[in-house]
């Protein structure tokens, strides 16, 4: 990694948005730097951000700002990628995620989706207040490795339980791992719903998925 | 009812238990609070929609519940539920409620959106009232649409004041004013039912847990103006303006809270806290953005003779040492997921405590588990000198089986008087 590359990683990891975006723009638009390399540098920065989050140095504001910085850089870099078909980076696994029926909350779910995405997973986010039947249809169509059920309200306990029972009833339970998350979720709720695991934050969700996919957490 | 003494005496005795807890004195028994919102629909076997719209039914069901469980204090049961007609009259856009975005049997839910744009800090800071009238109110409630055409009031004077009056003749402003007056009349009816219920319960010997509600400056801006994403990035992008606005909010929010609490005649101010949890920001961010403007409000409320009752949502264990910094014997700290024994260890000599039976246990467990959880709190907090008001983590979860509520109240009497 040259000095300039190191500088970009550092500024991104340090939440120095103005300098990081200016440098990334220059690298991409003026210096003709390989966009895939710039995106790789972004991922390296996100590894540092994720690590600092796990160590209790960073919190949600840093995850959200990092997400927005990456979005901005991605919007410039992605159209510049000249990639032959089939050359796309191999994803670690496919994750289907949504907020269960009756619940409209999505802040936590969106952060989990973003963290899974930048950690190399293919993520399909099917939104909020998702009926049981939509989960079944999406599992059949999308064929995910992991299903993430999100919910903030206590009513989500029953919605999650119903969704998991329906997945089981459709003969799909053995095909997917199921994780749940949200403000009120704990081991009692995990046992009640029949999920495989629960997570209290986005990094835990990433680690659960990495564990299931056999990737190093 | 367990008390067969006259209502006023029963009322005073119940209320004294709360005041004793606040003053860090041992009450004659562990007080128990009855806080419910949409659980009342389950209890009364009606839909959430009916609960939000039928003033008479909610009063009847709420009274029945209070008499059955015989708590020391009950929450604002009518005010917290029967807002349907008012929300409709105001054209409230920040909530979805039964019949308006969610099903008849679902509780209302808040819509996290950006209601104030990042480049509007200067407008809000310079003239909060003007920002409210011209920008914020029409955005959050349709009754106010048309207020954009009101004049800019500061600067109107002499004949310019006369000229400024022309705005009120505009069809958009007239229509808005008519809608606002109609909405105000509905809200007045709503408030009347709340007052009637409070008076009725008072005559039966039951005090209401709080009069007014308030909000912390940070939560006010995060929840109701900038939205979650906006607020979390403003910490970096608009740090100075955010700090300036938070400080300004602490002044007008305090003023409004003191006025509302005094009008209610009840000194306890309920303050649900959303953005303080350990996971939401670093210690440094908490000390810089969240705590100072809120502490300023707490001290202001205490100076005005009020009893602040913040409900610290989620897990706030890492904040305990910081939020200890209030005068002793003046506040009730209600905890949602913070371990109550730990809270007692850190704060037991400073504040009364409230809470915190787990929502997952209350909804998915059985009466024996409820009994054991109450016993744990009674033995490890109340009997060890903690001034605990027993409640659930955030009142009764909507799905709680009635048998578990009975178990909660029975166990409180069994283990703590």
What does this protein structure show overall?
Chain A is 55% helix and 11% strand. In chain A, strands 2-1-3-4-5 form a five-stranded parallel sheet, sandwiched between helices. Chain A has two domains: 3-80, Methionine synthase domain (Methyltransferase, Methionine Synthase (B12-binding Domains), Chain A, domain 1); 94-212, Cobalamin-binding domain (Rossmann fold, 3-Layer(aba) Sandwich). Chain A is built from nine helices and five strands. With 217 residues, chain A is an alpha/beta fold. With 417 residues, chain B is of the alpha/beta class. In chain B, strand 9, helix 14 (340-347) and strand 10 (352-357) form a beta-alpha-beta unit. The radius of gyration of chain B is 22 Å and the shape is globular. Classes of the chains: A alpha/beta (217), B alpha/beta (417). At the A-B interface, helix 4, helix 7 and helix 8 of A face strand 4, helix 10 and helix 15 of B.
Structural classification of chain A:
alpha/beta
Terminal CA distance of chain A:
24 Å
CATH architecture of chain B: Alpha-Beta Barrel
String of helices and strands of chain B? HEHHHEHEEEHHHHEHHEHEHEHEHHEH
Using the coordinates shown, work out and report the CATH topology of the largest domain in chain A.
Answer: Rossmann fold
Major sheet description of chain A = 5 strands, parallel
In CATH, the homologous superfamily of the largest domain in chain A goes by the name Cobalamin-binding domain
Q: What is the CATH class name of the largest domain in chain A?
A: Alpha Beta
Q: Estimate the mean pLDDT confidence of chain A.
A: 92
Report the average pLDDT across residues of chain B.
Answer: 96
So what's the overall shape of chain B? globular
Task: Please tally the helical runs of chain A, counting DSSP H or I stretches of 4 or more residues.
Answer: 9
Helices and strands of chain A, in order, run as: HHHHEHEHEHEHEH
């Amino acid at each position: 990694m040259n000095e300039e590359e190191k500088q970009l990683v550092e500024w991104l990891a340090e939440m120095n948005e103005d300098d990081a975006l200016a440098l990334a723009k220059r690298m991409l638009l003026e210096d003709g730097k390989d966009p895939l390399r710039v995106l790789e540098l972004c991922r390296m920065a996100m590894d540092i951000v994720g690590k600092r989050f796990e160590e209790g140095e960073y919190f949600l504001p840093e995850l959200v700002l990092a997400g927005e910085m990456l979005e901005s850089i991605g919007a410039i870099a992605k159209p510049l990628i000249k990639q032959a078909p089939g050359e796309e980076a191999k994803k670690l696994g496919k994750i289907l995620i949504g907020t269960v029926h009756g619940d409209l909350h999505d802040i936590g779910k969106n952060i989990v989706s973003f963290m899974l995405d930048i950690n190399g997973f293919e993520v399909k986010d099917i939104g909020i207040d998702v009926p049981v039947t939509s989960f079944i249809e999406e599992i059949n169509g999308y064929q995910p490795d992991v299903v993430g059920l999100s919910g903030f309200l206590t009513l989500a306990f029953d919605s999650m339980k119903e969704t998991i029972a329906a997945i089981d009833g459709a003969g799909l339970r053995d095909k997917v791992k199921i994780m749940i998350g949200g403000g009120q979720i704990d081991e009692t709720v995990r046992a009640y719903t029949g999920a495989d695991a629960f997570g209290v934050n986005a990094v835990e969700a990433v680690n659960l998925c990495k564990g299931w996919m056999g990737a190093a957490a | 009812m367990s008390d067969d003494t006259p209502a006023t005496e029963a009322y005073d005795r119940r209320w004294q238990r709360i005041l004793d807890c606040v003053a860090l004195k041992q009450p004659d028994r562990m007080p128990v609070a009855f806080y419910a919102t949409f659980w009342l629909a389950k209890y009364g076997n009606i839909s959430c929609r009916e609960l939000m719209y039928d003033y008479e039914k909610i009063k009847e069901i709420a009274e029945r519940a209070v008499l059955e469980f015989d708590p020391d204090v009950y929450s604002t049961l009518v005010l917290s539920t029967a807002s349907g007609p008012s929300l409709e009259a105001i054209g409230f856009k920040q909530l979805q409620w039964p019949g308006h975005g969610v099903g008849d049997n679902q509780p209302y839910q808040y819509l996290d959106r950006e209601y104030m744009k990042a480049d509007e800090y200067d407008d809000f800071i310079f003239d909060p009232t003007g920002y409210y009238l011209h920008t914020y109110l029409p955005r959050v409630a349709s009754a106010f649409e048309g207020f954009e055409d009101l004049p800019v009031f500061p600067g109107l004077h002499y004949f310019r004041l006369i000229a400024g009056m022309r705005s009120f003749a505009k069809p958009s402003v007239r229509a808005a004013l008519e809608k606002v007056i109609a909405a105000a009349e509905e809200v007045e009816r709503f408030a009347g039912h709340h007052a009637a219920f409070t008076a009725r319960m008072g005559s039966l010997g039951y005090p209401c847990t709080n009069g007014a509600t308030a909000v912390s400056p940070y939560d006010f801006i995060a929840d109701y103006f900038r939205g979650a994403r906006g607020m979390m990035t403003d910490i970096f992008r608009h740090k100075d303006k955010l700090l300036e606005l938070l400080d300004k909010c602490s002044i007008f929010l305090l003023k409004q809270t003191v006025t509302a609490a005094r009008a209610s005649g009840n000194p306890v101010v309920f303050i649900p806290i959303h953005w303080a949890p350990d996971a939401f920001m670093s210690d440094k961010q908490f000390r810089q953005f969240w705590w100072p403007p809120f502490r300023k409000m707490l001290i202001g409320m205490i100076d005005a003779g009020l009893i602040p009752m913040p409900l610290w949502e989620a897990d706030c264990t890492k904040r305990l040492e910081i939020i200890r910094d209030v005068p002793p014997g003046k506040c009730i700290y209600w905890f949602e997921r913070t371990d109550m024994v730990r809270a007692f260890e850190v704060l037991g000599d400073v504040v009364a405590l409230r809470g915190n039976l787990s929502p997952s246990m209350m909804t998915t467990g059985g009466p024996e588990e409820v009994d054991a959880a109450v016993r744990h709190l009674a033995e490890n907090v109340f009997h060890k000198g903690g001034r605990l008001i027993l409640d659930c983590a955030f009142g009764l979860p909507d799905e709680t089986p009635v048998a578990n509520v009975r178990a909660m109240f029975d166990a409180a009497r069994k283990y703590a008087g």
